[in-house]
Amino acid sequence: MIALHFENGQLVEKETDTPQVRRGEALVKIQYAGICSTDLEILKGYMDFSGIPGHEFVGTVETPRSLAGRRVTGEINISCGRCELCRRGLGKHCRERTVLGIAGRDGVFAEYITLPMSNLHVVPDGVSDEEAAFTELLAAACEIPERVYISQSCRVAVLGDGRLAAMAAQVLRLKTKGLTVLGVEPEKMRVIAGLGIDTLHAAAIPTMKGTFDVVVECTGSRMGLPDAIDMIRPHGTIVLKSTFHAPLKWNPSRIAVDEITIVGSRCGPFETALGLLQKKKVVTAPFLTSVYPFKKWQTAFRRARQKNSFKVLLDMQA
Ligand SMILES: [Zn+2]
Ligand SMILES: [Zn+2]
């Protein structure tokens, strides 16, 4: 099969063997693979990954026969199932885990992948392949109200104007009337505002000190957490979604003095995400920037890096 390999700091197209299917695993033919910020970070050396990157996908099961032909998407953490964390239902934190296209396991910028069958979720009828390609991202947004109780009167700020912020805003507006998205890219903010969501330019942040009950940090940038700390009210909760990974200089005293809670949050529930897509409670079409045939992967990665792009998909069968 053809796949993209990341090795020695370079992403290259290579012919490789179709992966070996182990017990309990399925072989999945990838239809669409999504380019995510994590992938772009990996190409800069994040996680010291080498191999086939990519973790957002929709595809069709080839084997086993019991599932063959089903459209699926899949959870990215492959845990051991035996350790203390796994036994406590915290498999996504298993210390023995591999993570699809991120740590110790080849990912989805390939014609085929293998994944444990327990990681797969069948895509319901009425959800298109293009929509299903957003499942992993949307599931990460669905994790926010799982971690923090959000009432209808809660004042919630989403910091960021990217793909994750757009999904988080759509999930959170189902929970509260008091939602504001703060971002910087005018084109992207217009698309978010087009859904009837209140938006403000991030330049307004200094005027909003201590205003919000919950701040969801989705900027992926150095200023995200310090801005969130500025905006949260005493006793409020910050949900940190960005996996920004560099040392930060900031003053933590407000956390103690104003008794602020910071909740880290990563992957989320796929079934909730697929349910929202099926019921059309979340839309993805305005956030699908482009679909490129696999052969055009270099252009696709360039497009994904542009400031005004949301989600870029690779069609692995075109
Ligand atoms: Zn991702
Ligand atoms: Zn484990």
Overview of the structural elements:
With 318 residues, this protein is of the alpha/beta class. It has two domains: 2-134 and 284-315, Quinone Oxidoreductase, Chain A, domain 1; 140-264, Rossmann fold. 24% of the residues lie in helices and 30% in strands. It has helices spanning 37-42, 84-87, 129-132, 135-147, 163-172, 186-193, 224-231, 253-257, 270-278, 297-305, and strands spanning 2-7, 10-15, 25-35, 56-63, 71-74, 77-78, 98-100, 104-105, 112-116, 120-122, 155-159, 178-183, 198-201, 212-217, 232-240, 261-264, 288-293, 311-315. The strands form four sheets. Strands 3, 4, 5, 9, 10, 17 and 18 form a seven-stranded mixed β-sheet that branches. A hairpin with a 7-residue loop joins strand 4 and strand 5 (71-74). The longest helix has 13 residues, at 135-147. The radius of gyration is 20 Å and the shape is globular. The relative contact order is 0.15. The model has no long low-confidence stretch (mean pLDDT 96). Bound molecules: zinc ion (2 copies). The site of one zinc ion has 6 residues, from helix 4. One zinc ion is lined by residues 79-80, 82-83, 85-86, 94, 96.
